[in-house]
Amino acid sequence: MNPLIKKISWIILFSIAMAYLESAVVVYLREIYYPDGFVFPLTPIDSTIAITEFWREVATLVMLLGIGILTGKSSAQRLAFFLLSFAIWDIFYYVFLYVLLGWPSSLMTWDILFLVPVPWVGPVLSPIIISLLMITLASSLIYFNKKLNTLEWLFSILGSIVVIISWVLDYWNFSTKKTSSDIWTLSSKHNLFDSTEQYIPSSFNWYIFTAGTFLITLAILSFYFRNKKNSKL
Questions:
Q1: pLDDT (tens digit per residue) in 135-158
Q2: Is position 233 within any domain?
Q3: Residues 6 or more apart from 92 whose CB is under 8 A from it?
Q4: Mean pLDDT in the chain?
Q5: Which of 94, 144, 221, 227 has its CA 20 to 30 A from that of 137?
């Protein structure tokens, strides 16, 4: 087997295994906080568990980043393997949740994507779309083994920021209507989601999300056609 294909196969296998571990943790948390099934509004989470969950998410990102750094032979490969592992992990996280819990019921089901400083929420379809874009970019990086240029990095970063805005906007609009904001930090003494008793996601701004994905897609297309052109010279 080609060494690169073998390496990619192990990265995919590792990412799927990590996705199962991630989904298993969610199964335990939902058994504790949502024994009748996950629904909004969010149940307050004990501050100790919230801090533990925050650092678990950080540890997950470090592990995925470590895969790229340890397996890639060039900066392009390191970025590609990180993106690939992250995307595979994210997609199979939902696959295993569906297998284990029968959730989500559809791709339009709302989910919590991240916790702090405010909940990142959005339909399950939205992170899956981003994961597919990550796989596309990773494939191009692996194929050409070239770096993104400054403009492509700019499009990628701006696009990612815009996408994140689409995920936090609904909750941010909710919290600004309250007398106290629910900006949670690691030093907070109150429980996470203490101020979310009435929060139920009302709308996802697909226009902002689409604008973000458009910028990311521009970066991918620019990278692909630039290197395809150079490879013919």
A1: 999 999 999 999 999 999 999 999
A2: no
A3: 15, 16, 19, 20
A4: 88
A5: 94
